[in-house]
Specification:
mainly alpha; globular; about 425 residues
């Protein structure tokens, strides 16, 4: 039951039903695994409701471990139901509170997550990690790092200061890559913290350190960490590739990719996003086409909007706007404002105003005042540069009447 509850959840649930019909008496340990099965089913919410009612009849809902597992399942399927259950729980443990912190954070309600954290009668390392991650994942860096410092001086019931675990450190390292130079300084201190505490450079920590240093532009250190790791996987290789591509080292990124293939590591979708970004940075059009075909033909990866966006950016940057438009027309899904923004930007820079005007009507069908201010301004500029003053004026008047806000430029790079 333990293994099948995750790998074959429907079979685990059917097994339990057969046992129940045959009057087999199951203990709470079995119930926990059946609940895990419900959370892994695509139709899990309706089954979860039925199983919840079943547990009420059997009296298991007074067991704090069972109700906490039920809470976790609801948090994944229907968070409103999780909130209702949490309010009705007669007994809660620390895990119950942590589930709610994570749930609120996942739904973007950081204030509610913090309220739950503040109301907790007792907190453990997982509680601190959950609220710190909630702040950092929503770019509230000041609050997140402030809580981390507070955590380091907080003592537990045994009067011993809490020590961050790897989960906490991974969240912090992921955030450091978004903070520029100060992020690199903080990332180095977290790296030193792991060394002082004797943590092994395993796959997860190593991948985070490689990613942090690479995204912060410290590629030499990223390579050093990579080489020190006893075992690497597609995540660590991809971190190196994306880091090099992001900072303009396109050819170096391609070299890393070639070495990755030589070592028998199979690339994933994110790897090809990094490779296509690398091609854009150094304008390697033929290589970009090759990798775009490779991901489909050799590795069976269907291109997503980010891959098509990179290819459109590459062709547009090279001035090959006819081919770029052909790529957009052959996409299996509707182009979004990012792809149209990229295409129109290169039409403007290459002064291909007639090419831009061919797609403006199509672009206006997807652009919205609340998210397309940059596109409105871009189209107005194209009209102006193309000598179509009346169309430009009409569009700018439309922007004013609809209270359109200008947004930043668009790019997948």
């Amino acid at each position: 039951m333990k293994v099948s509850s995750v790998s074959a959840p429907l079979e685990a649930l059917q097994f339990y039903c057969r046992g129940h019909h045959n009057s087999v008496s199951f203990d709470s340990f079995t119930i926990l695994h059946v609940l895990k099965s419900c959370s892994h089913l695509s139709c899990g919410i309706s089954i979860l409701h039925h199983f919840h009612a079943h547990l009420l009849k059997l009296g298991f809902c007074r067991n704090v471990y069972v109700t906490t597992c039920l809470l976790s399942a609801y948090a994944l399927k229907c968070f409103d139901d999780a909130c209702l259950l949490f309010s009705e729980m007669p007994v809660r443990n620390t895990v119950s509170w942590n589930v709610m912190i994570t749930g609120y954070a996942r739904h973007g309600d950081i204030a509610a997550a913090r309220h739950v954290f503040d109301e907790m009668p007792q907190r453990n390392v997982a509680s601190w990690s959950a609220i710190i991650s909630a702040y950092l994942n929503h770019s509230c860096f000041h609050q997140g790092f402030s809580l981390f410092r507070q955590m380091l001086i907080t003592k537990n019931a045994e009067d011993v200061c809490l020590k961050p675990d790897q989960f906490t450190l991974v969240s912090i390292l992921a955030s450091c890559s978004k903070m520029g130079l100060i992020g690199l300084v903080l990332g180095k201190s977290m790296h030193a913290f792991s060394i002082r505490n004797g943590w092994d450079l395993d796959m997860k920590l190593g991948a985070c350190l490689v990613g942090m240093y690479a995204k912060c532009g410290h590629l030499k250190m990223a390579n050093s960490i990579f080489n020190m790791m006893g075992c690497t996987n597609v995540v660590t290789w991809t971190a190196l590739i994306c880091g090099a591509a992001y900072h303009g080292f396109g050819r170096e990124a391609l070299m890393v990719f070639d070495k990755m293939i030589e070592n028998g590591v199979i690339p994933n979708s994110l790897t090809f996003t990094g490779i296509l970004n690398a091609c854009v940075h150094v304008m390697l059009v033929d290589e970009g086409r090759k990798y775009f075909r490779m991901m489909q033909q050799q590795y069976g990866i269907m291109p997503g909007v980010e891959h098509y966006g990179c290819l459109v950016e590459l062709l547009g940057k090279a001035g090959m706007l006819v081919e770029a438009l052909e790529v957009i027309d052959t996409m299996p899904f509707r182009p979004n404002i990012v792809i149209w923004g990229s295409f129109l930007t290169w039409c403007k820079l290459h002064r291909q105003f007639e090419m831009a005007e061919k797609v403006i009507d199509e672009v206006m069908k997807v652009v919205r005042p609340e998210n397309g201010g940059g596109l409105y301004s871009l189209i107005a500029d194209i009209y102006t540069l193309g000598g179509k003053w009346s169309e430009a004026e009409q569009l700018r008047e439309l922007m004013q009447t609809q209270n359109v806000r200008k947004a930043r430029g668009y790019s997948f790079i």
